[in-house]
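Private note to self, pasted from the team thread so I don't lose it. Backbone tokens:
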């Protein structure tokens, strides 16, 4: 199995250092010049977030939010990975395109993407970490922890 942390260090998104992830998940945009006649509701710009790139699977280009694509999926996967690391979770790992994630992170990252990342306003938002923790606590049961601590990769693909 590959190293746990991704090796890539060039992504289309950028880091936000002003707010710690244990306070809030920050999703923002670096503004780009836009045509003055363009629709003012369309937000453009590079994705900014305070989530570290621990693994890459869906989007080698980087994180995104505000729709249900590959960039939002990788963002959700990395938020889940950070959360599980923060509670000292130990279990099986799933090999990703670059790095490895907890199998538990893999199992629920698409649901987390739909709950928080895909529907986030394209202009950006912040989500208090307590809200995210509550979601995790509601969706990660003790039974799931035991199951994915012992699951094989073949069982996870079912």
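Design output:
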């Amino acid at each position: 199995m590959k190293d746990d942390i991704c090796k890539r260090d060039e992504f289309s998104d950028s880091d936000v250092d002003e707010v710690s992830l244990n306070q809030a998940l920050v999703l923002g945009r670096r503004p780009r010049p836009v045509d003055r006649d363009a629709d003012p509701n369309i937000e453009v710009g590079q994705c900014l977030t305070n989530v570290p790139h621990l693994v890459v699977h869906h989007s080698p280009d980087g994180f995104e939010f505000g729709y249900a694509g590959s960039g939002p999926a990788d963002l959700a996967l990395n938020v889940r990975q950070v959360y599980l690391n923060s509670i000292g979770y130990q279990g099986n790992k799933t090999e990703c395109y670059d790095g490895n994630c907890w199998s538990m992170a893999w199992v629920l990252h698409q649901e987390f993407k739909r709950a928080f990342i895909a529907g986030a306003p394209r202009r950006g938002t912040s989500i208090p970490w307590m809200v995210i923790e509550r979601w995790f606590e509601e969706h990660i049961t003790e039974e799931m922890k035991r199951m994915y601590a012992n699951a094989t990769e073949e069982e996870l693909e079912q």
